[in-house]
């Protein structure tokens, strides 16, 4: 290829290359020729060669060797070379290149050139790749050009000023006065540049924002002129007069009217006029309407105007363009909390969008539908959501199920409806629900004693038809184990009576145990349910014993351990089996700050019953004053005495959290051979009250502490309580005490069990608060335990 080949010929040769290797060869030869010509002192084809190099750069090949040639061409007095040189600078240079500093002086000279097109080239280049240093040096020149008489230069200078403000925030004050004066121009390009510049200034400085709020009437007048103006061929786009300028003005009005009632009032009439007069049949009109809606919703607008904005978004939902439907639902999602009733009017249209084929529109419609659920429409909305759940894509199933659960928990009209809804979700999408669904449903069922019979019958039927949905199977097994006697009785007023035999129930549970679809956790539920039925049926106890014994050699360790312990109940502790496997009490929900559904506020006043001793307020709110500041000295235990770190506090009344998958663990499941008992020691002895401590090591980190209290005085002790605190890294759970009174002369004792889990193996310490009433006077004392028998501390 000849070095003087024209640009068109080079492009044709590159495009005709059959392979990438051939294309690289063409480009390498041409780049070598361009380098050679760049080195020549007098080269008449410099602009021609640089143009070819820019095309090579556009193809992704290296062209950095042309940077200095760009600098030389920018300094050329010829316009044709300047044009290509500035184009090359914008493509090959950036603010990180040292060569960019070399063109600062050339740009400054060209900004003062008498030729407006050369000035335009310099302005465009500075706005494209000007560094912070260049912006500081050339900002006064830009401010001068903003006051020029040429509209063509003014609009270029305004956009260049925007770049300078973004690069150097401190220079914004320099352009404030000139930007405001540009709003009086007739040229739409100049006004557009001024609006963009003012928007940038207001977003960066709150003082400038306050200053420009005075321009709201001017902006309103400009906008009104655009709305009511007739056809203008220079600015008309699909019947809308200069929609680009309208959109920019609406965005600026949104910034100026935010959190300002005076500015908002000044633009309310204009926004209503734009919302009612703009054609919504074209995309251009929809763009203006969308900006109008955003402005109305963001400023302090009138309630009627906000309803009009929501109605416009409702019309967008009927548009055939999915992009318009998507942005409409995105906007409605943001305002559904503040304008709930206005959005509710379009509930039917939003629900119809759940059937859209586009996945993004469907997801937005789901989020908005869940936000629209309320106590008044819970039944109709839940019907639509359950219908959507049965046909929705797999990636939306989990979100839909979670939303239905939350809505049902908040707005359920009845407990039966709540249970039916959750069971419907588990039947449809049981594999996609969250892990806490099973324990939450179990708690709900437990608390509704009047529906136990109805629930167990319904779950039994569901188990007969499908055992693939694991959460549903787990809840069904739990209910059959707890309320199997109600199922066998066959008396249920809410459902059709079904005669179920003991063999039928055991067959279902055995099917779950043997199914390949059952997870280890589900098998654990089924095995425990089978075991619990041994106390609820009479004729098939031997069959249950046989089923349990089979899993004593199961490969799954958890299932094997349960089976071994259940076999031990049959053989060694059969007299205790009925008590161990009795029906579960009402499960108390435990979450941070909640007990039985009631919020417990910090520093809440503790009510003391009449006749009980009033404890000091600071001690009630801060047990043992563990964080310091206690005026009551601690009594060290006979073992050791030292200061312990801050500790979490527990009492016997603290509810136990529900652990998913372990709801049926009624007996300890640790291997018996790992348990070690140690000697009993006395930790407190004062005024006739004696507290002893004994330990039983469950595992490397688990420890069960038994506290036994006795009274050797001649008078009875009432209201006896023990409270305990341990280091933060230790988990503590106090079981219910055996009583709260200590008869005189040691006639009876009070036993309190404390379960400790020390996974980090920290130095174990415990503080006890002992409270009781003796002979009408309240007594309260504390003791610190710094060593436990058998732990080697």
Detail the topology: elements first, then pairings.
Blueprint: H1 7-15, H2 20-39, H3 46-58, H4 67-74, H5 79-92, H6 104-111, H7 116-129, H8 132-146, H9 151-167, H10 172-182, H11 188-204, H12 206-212, H13 216-228, E1 236-237, E2 240-241, H14 243-257, H15 261-277, H16 283-298, H17 303-317, H18 322-335, H19 340-344, H20 347-352, H21 359-372, H22 378-391, H23 394-411, H24 415-429, H25 437-447, H26 452-465, H27 470-489, H28 502-514, H29 520-532, H30 541-550, H31 557-571, H32 577-580, E3 590-591, E4 594-595, E5 598-599, H33 617-621, E6 635-636, E7 649-650, E8 676-677, E9 681-686, E10 689-697, E11 702-711, E12 717-725, E13 731-734, E14 750-757, E15 766-774, E16 777-785
Parallel strand pairs: 6-16
Antiparallel strand pairs: 1-2, 3-4, 4-5, 7-12, 8-10, 9-10, 10-11, 11-14, 12-15, 13-14, 15-16
Question: What does this 3D model show about the protein?
Answer:
The model is unreliable at 591-675 (pLDDT under 50). The strands form four sheets. Strands 8, 9, 10, 11, 13 and 14 form a six-stranded antiparallel β-sheet that branches. Strands 6-16-15-12-7 form a five-stranded mixed β-sheet, with no helix packed on it. Strands 3-4-5 form a three-stranded antiparallel β-sheet, with no helix packed on it. Helix 8 (132-146) runs parallel beside helix 10, helix 9 (151-167) packs antiparallel against helix 10 (172-182) and helix 14 (243-257) runs parallel beside helix 16 (283-298). Strand 10 and strand 11 form a beta hairpin. The chain contains 33 helices and 16 strands. With 793 residues, the protein is an alpha+beta fold.
């Amino acid at each position: 290829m000849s070095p003087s080949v024209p640009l068109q010929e080079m492009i044709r040769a590159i495009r005709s290359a059959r392979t990438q290797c051939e294309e690289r060869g063409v480009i390498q030869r041409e780049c070598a020729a361009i380098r050679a010509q760049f080195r020549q002192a007098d080269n008449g084809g410099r602009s021609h060669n640089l143009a070819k190099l820019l095309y090579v750069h556009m193809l992704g090949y290296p062209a950095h060797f042309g940077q200095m040639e760009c600098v030389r061409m920018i300094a050329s007095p010829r316009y044709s070379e300047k044009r290509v040189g500035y184009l090359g600078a914008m493509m090959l240079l950036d603010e990180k290149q040292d060569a960019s500093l070399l063109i600062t002086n050339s740009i400054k000279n060209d900004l003062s050139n008498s030729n407006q097109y050369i000035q335009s080239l310099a302005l465009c280049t500075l706005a494209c790749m000007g560094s912070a240093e260049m912006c500081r040096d050339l900002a006064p020149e830009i401010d001068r050009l903003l006051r020029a008489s040429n509209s063509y230069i003014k609009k270029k200078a305004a956009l260049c000023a925007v770049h300078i403000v973004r690069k150097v925030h401190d220079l914004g004050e320099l352009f404030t006065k000139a930007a405001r004066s540009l709003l009086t121009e007739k040229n739409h390009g100049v006004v557009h540049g001024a609006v963009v510049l003012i928007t940038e200034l207001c977003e960066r400085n709150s003082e400038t924002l306050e200053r420009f709020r005075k321009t709201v009437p001017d902006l309103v007048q400009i906008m009104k002129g655009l709305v009511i103006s007739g056809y203008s061929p220079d600015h008309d786009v699909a019947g809308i007069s200069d929609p680009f300028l309208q959109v920019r003005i609406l965005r600026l009005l949104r910034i100026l009217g935010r959190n300002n009632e005076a500015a908002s009032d000044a633009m309310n009439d204009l926004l209503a006029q734009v919302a009612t007069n703009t054609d919504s049949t074209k995309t251009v009109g929809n763009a203006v309407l969308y900006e109008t809606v955003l402005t109305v919703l963001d400023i302090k607008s009138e309630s009627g105007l906000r309803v009009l904005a929501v109605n416009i978004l409702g019309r967008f939902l009927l548009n055939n363009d999915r992009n318009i439907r998507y942005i409409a639902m995105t906007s409605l999602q943001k305002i559904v909390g503040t304008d709930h009733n206005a959005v509710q009017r379009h509930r039917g249209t939003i629900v119809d969008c759940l059937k859209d084929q586009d996945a993004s529109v469907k997801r937005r419609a789901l989020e908005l539908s869940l936000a629209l659920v309320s106590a008044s429409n819970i039944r109709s909305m839940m019907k639509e959501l359950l219908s959507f759940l049965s046909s929705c894509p797999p990636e939306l199933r989990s979100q839909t199920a979670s939303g239905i659960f939350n809505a049902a928990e908040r707005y359920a009209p009845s407990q039966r409806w709540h249970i039916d809804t959750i069971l419907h979700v588990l039947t449809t999408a049981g594999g996609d629900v969250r892990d806490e669904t099973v324990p939450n449903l179990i708690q709900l069922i437990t608390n509704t004693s009047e529906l136990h019979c109805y629930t167990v019958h319904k779950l039994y039927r569901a188990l007969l038809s499908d055992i693939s949905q694991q959460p549903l199977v787990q809840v069904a097994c739990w209910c059959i184990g707890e309320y199997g006697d109600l199922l066998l009785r066959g008396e249920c007023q809410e459902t059709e009576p079904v005669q179920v035999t003991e063999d039928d129930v055991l067959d279902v549970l055995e099917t779950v145990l043997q199914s390949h679809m059952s997870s280890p956790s589900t098998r654990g539920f089924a095995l425990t349910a089978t075991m619990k039925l041994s106390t609820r049926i009479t004729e098939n106890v031997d069959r249950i014993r046989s089923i349990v014994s089979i899993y004593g050699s199961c490969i799954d360790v958890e299932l094997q351990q349960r089976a071994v312990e259940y076999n031990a109940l049959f053989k060694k502790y059969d007299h205790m089996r009925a008590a161990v496997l009795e029906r579960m009490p009402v499960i108390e929900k435990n979450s941070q700050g909640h007990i039985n559904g009631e919020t417990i506020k910090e520093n809440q006043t503790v009510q003391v019953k009449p006749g009980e001793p009033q404890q000091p307020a600071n001690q009630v709110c801060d047990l043992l004053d563990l964080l310091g500041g206690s005026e009551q000295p601690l009594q060290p235990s006979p073992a050791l005495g030292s200061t312990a770190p801050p500790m979490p506090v527990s009492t016997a009344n603290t509810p136990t959290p529900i652990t998913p998958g372990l709801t049926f663990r009624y007996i300890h499941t640790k291997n018996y051979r790992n348990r070690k008992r140690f000697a009993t020691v006395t930790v407190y002895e004062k005024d006739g009250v004696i507290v002893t401590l004994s330990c039983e090591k469950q595992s490397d980190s688990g420890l069960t502490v038994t506290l036994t209290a006795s009274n050797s005085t001649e008078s009875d002790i009432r209201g006896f309580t023990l409270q305990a605190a341990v280091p933060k890294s230790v988990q503590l759970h106090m079981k219910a005490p055996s009583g709260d009174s200590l008869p005189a002369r040691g006639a009876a004792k009070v036993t309190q069990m404390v379960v400790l889990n020390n996974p980090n193996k920290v130095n174990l310490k415990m503080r006890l608060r002992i409270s009781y009433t003796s002979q009408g006077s309240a007594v309260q004392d504390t003791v610190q335990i710094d060593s436990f028998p058998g732990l080697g501390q």
